[in-house]
């Protein structure tokens, strides 16, 4: 391996410590930021995320409010809860864990969250603010990914950046963040022709696809910064029946032999997401109080 390993786990720990320090300073002024997390249904992966979010919120010195609703919850009921949280002065951030059960329209829920409490950054107001370069709440995963890019390549102006994936949660906001930093940005997706050739141009390559090890070593420009957002569970070669392991969208060993810097999976972008959620909650708490 020739690439520098970008240690997202360590970076996230540092970010959480910085957030906790600011939270302590706010608490001394009588302000304790609060994050409300809403989970509808019993999806086991979502339950783990929600538990981790709550634990890290408390660890950072903030208040955590958890709302668990049954899978049968109707849209009106969920919207009513969101309205209550919007009006609650103790709540600075609201996160409704996705995916939601089929009877609920996720977009309606996202649009019901007060933009100043939208710590996921999914509300059209925050999407628009990011697109127009105004201050706002930025989606946690691309925000974390951009911090990791900054840590190894602080100036991306004029560089070629390729983002694979155009979701509203990762790909599009990631591209906006890179554009804000004056990179020349290409967004690739499932209809892109000759994806390998497009990727080979990239000085900064972000993979947010959800396909295990799709990006091969010979797709990487020598020296490039490679950010692997993908989290894919695949059968484990060692271990018995039913054993699985996590891999990214990038074939790590191959890519690490060519890249200048690369994030591992796990331990790369993943840990940054919750750390950025805490940072966004702190930002929302300060902004709401004019601090
Ligand atoms: P989506 O499924 O919403 O988007 C995937 C994107 O990849 C789409 O834009 C799709 O294109 C594109 N795509 C699919 N197949 C190909 C292909 N063969 N070639 C090129 N592009 C392709 O996923 P998300 O954006 O939500 O997540 C992406 C990955 O990131 C997942 O593995 C997810 O688990 C992970 N993730 C990790 C997070 C974390 O680290 N905390 C948080 C969020 C996500 P098209 O639009 O044309 O269909």
Radius of gyration: 19 Å
Strand order of the largest sheet: 1-11-8-7-5-6
Quaternary structure annotation: single chain
Coarse shape: globular
Associated small molecules? NADPH dihydro-nicotinamide-adenine-dinucleotide phosphate
CATH class of the largest domain: Alpha Beta
**Count of domain modules:** 2
Architecture per CATH nomenclature, i.e. the level-2 architecture of the largest domain: 3-Layer(aba) Sandwich
Structural class: alpha/beta
Number of strands: 11
Helix content: 40-55%
Largest beta-sheet characterization: 6 strands, parallel
Q: Considering the protein shown, what is the CATH homologous superfamily of the largest domain? A: NAD(P)-binding Rossmann-like Domain
Give a description of the structure:
This protein is α/β, with parallel strands linked by helices and 291 residues long. It folds into 2 domains: 31-114, 3-Layer(aba) Sandwich (Rossmann fold), CATH 3.40.50; 140-270, Rossmann fold (3-Layer(aba) Sandwich), CATH 3.40.50.720. The protein contains 10 helices and 11 strands. The chain has helices spanning 8-27, 44-59, 75-87, 106-112, 124-132, 140-152, 171-180, 195-200, 252-256, 269-288, and strands at 4-5, 34-40, 63-69, 93-96, 160-164, 184-188, 204-207, 225-228, 232-235, 244-247, 261-262. Strands 1-11-8-7-5-6 form a 6-stranded parallel beta sheet. A 3-stranded parallel beta sheet has the order 3-2-4, sandwiched between helices. Strand 9 (232-235) and strand 10 (244-247) form a beta hairpin. Helix 2 (44-59) packs across helix 10 (269-288) and helix 6 crosses helix 10. NADPH dihydro-nicotinamide-adenine-dinucleotide phosphate is lined by residues 141, 164-167, 169-171, 188-192, 195, 208-211, 229-232, 269-270, 273. The site of NADPH dihydro-nicotinamide-adenine-dinucleotide phosphate (NDP) has 25 residues, from helix 10.
